[in-house]
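Q: What structure does this chain adopt?
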Amino acid sequence: MVYIVPSLPETLADRALYIQSRLVELPCQGCQARVKVRKNSDHQTSIQWTRAAVADCATFASLARQAGGRPVHAGCAQLSASIEEAVRDGALAVGLPDE
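A:
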């Protein structure tokens, strides 16, 4: 499979905007796995998982022990609760910042 590596400054800026901007590091209340999160709206959440966070997630470890392993799109209810609490506490903004 061919993979194109962006090299133009404007492409790199777009990549940073859509992949990395406004991500907030957040620990899970349950297992303390640390992910990066962005809330674009009340209904849309982006979560960037690192290998360490996946390894630390107790829910993912439990799902991985099941027959067939962890479903790729399985979520973690404790992390979801952590994100909701961060929004309520103001630690995680929803939507674009005011400019």
